[in-house]
Design goal:
The structure holds 2 protein chains of 2 kinds. Chain A is of the alpha+beta class. Chain A contains 6 helices and 12 strands. In chain A, 33% of the residues are buried. Chain B has helices at residues 3-11, 15-37, 40-57, 67-86, 107-125, 129-140, 145-152, 156-178. Residues 90-103 of chain B have low confidence and may be disordered. Classes of the chains: A alpha+beta, B mainly alpha.
Chain lengths: 261, 180
């Protein structure tokens, strides 16, 4: 560190003096212990906010999948976490990433509409039951694409333990050989853990117009657009928030990934 | 047991390891939070939230050796949000309550030194929370620019800009008030 000037050393000394003698009380630790206990108990009752059907609640920087579109299997909740330090910035490293996944995937480095590869990351996805117990886990691949002036688009690839079953009509479809591409768009409300559902929220969820998930510090609203398809036991989902892409454009992108366009 | 062992055991759900890590960092965390928020009660809330998050999310920490930096990241971001929300001046009577150490200097020298310290503390307090947070990390925690950028989740250029603004303000104020 650069040698500091005298006046800067005085600032350091004053700050140290200002908080000298401040110590954490026993009561503070007791409060921490109580809050941990309450948080762990509440984890079982958070499902009324976060998950009725198959959901991936996301950590910072990742994506919300079209929750509510698919019916769940045993799991009532899936959570996804990734570690930024494992992000891969070179598309040429895809083969190494496939080795970690354990299977090969379809992917492109760039799309005709200008979206280009930015980075990819492996996420750990965990499925939990109604009691909050983990019942399975698997890895998923998230490939992020960017275009100047536009929100990013991601391609999520995974081999889920339980393949979700569609229980809602998609907003658009396209058939490519023996594979059907499904396009969905839904309004997503991301809320903090202590959020309480409003009557409007409940009505929106019941109608299938609104999907709510837990994972942010403040309430956020975003329109998600997704194209989903299955190929050889692998689930692909192209998705993004608040995009300037319509159904046909996103379906075209999916076809580029599949190699049929 | 090394700290990495403790963190590893923490990730396995060991409560004793959590308690030991808390004991190790509690005062540093509380003091840093206090310097950012300017209020002891708020800083206790910040520390409480921080360590609850540490317990609930410890499995997200991949590198056990990075525990302190990760914990600091949570602490500083929580403190920053708290300070931004409350956004109030620290009452003068709370400033320098601890500055009461006579070390064999004359009464006059003690008064001058105390006054100087109060002015410096007041100057830091009057910084906007963004600059104050960076100043606390830079001067009190002695973090580098890159460490501060990682803690706050901003670019190094942003840290340098805030630090430049903070130093310019502090230097100007101290030159005017104290002839430094």
């Amino acid at each position: 560190m650069k040698k500091r000037k005298v006046w800067e050393e005085k600032i350091k000394d004053v700050l140290a003096l200002e908080c000298d003698g401040i110590t954490a009380s026993r009561a503070l630790k007791e409060r921490i212990d109580v809050q941990i206990l309450e948080s762990e108990k509440e984890a079982g009752s958070m499902k009324h906010v976060s998950v009725k059907k198959l959901v991936i609640g996301v950590a910072v920087g990742c994506l919300l999948v079209s929750g509510g579109v698919f019916a769940s299997g045993r799991a009532v909740s899936l959570t996804s976490h990734h570690y930024h330090q494992d992000d891969v910035g070179d598309f040429g490293e895809l083969s190494k990433v496939e080795q970690e996944l354990g299977y090969t995937v379809d992917a492109v480095e760039a799309f005709a509409n200008g979206y280009r590869f930015d980075h990819m990351e492996l996420d750990d996805v965990k499925g939990t039951d109604e009691g909050g117990n983990e019942i399975y886990s698997f890895r998923s691949l998230d490939i992020r694409y960017k275009k100047s002036g536009e929100n990013s688009v991601s391609l999520c690839i995974e081999k889920p333990v339980e393949m979700p079953v569609r229980n809602e009509t998609p907003d658009a479809t396209r058939v490519c050989g023996d594979i059907t591409l499904y396009y969905d768009t839904i309004m997503n409300k991301q809320v903090p853990p202590d959020y309480v559902l409003t009557e409007e929220d409940k009505a929106g969820e019941a109608k299938g117009d609104l999907y709510i998930s837990v994972g942010t510090e403040e309430v956020e609203m975003h329109q998600s657009s997704t194209v989903t398809w299955d190929k050889e036991g692998v689930r692909y989902q192209l998705l993004g928030f608040d995009l300037n892409l319509g159904a046909e454009e996103m379906l075209d992108m999916a076809e580029e990934i599949m190699g049929t366009k | 047991m090394t700290q990495e062992d403790l963190v590893r055991r923490l990730k396995e759900g060991d409560r004793t390891s959590f308690d030991l890590l808390y004991e190790q960092y509690k005062n540093m965390a509380l003091r840093t939070a206090y310097l950012i928020t300017g209020n002891l009660s708020d800083s206790e809330d910040v520390v409480q939230d921080t360590f609850v998050k540490v317990w609930l999310h410890c499995r997200e920490l991949k590198n056990e050796g990075g525990f302190k930096a990760w914990m600091m990241q949570i602490l500083v971001r929580t403190a920053y949000k708290s300070a931004k929300k409350k956004s109030r001046e620290l009452p003068d009577e709370e400033i320098m309550q601890k500055a009461d150490k006579s070390q064999g200097i004359s009464f006059a020298e003690e008064v001058i030194a105390r006054e100087e310290a109060e002015r410096i503390a007041r100057a830091v307090r009057s910084l906007p929370v963004k600059q104050r947070t960076v100043a606390v990390l830079y001067y009190y925690q002695e973090c580098s620019v890159s460490e501060i950028a990682a803690i706050l989740g901003v670019l190094e250029g942003t840290v340098k800009s805030r630090l430049y603004t903070a130093r310019k303000f502090l230097r100007g104020k101290l030159e005017r008030d104290l002839g430094m």
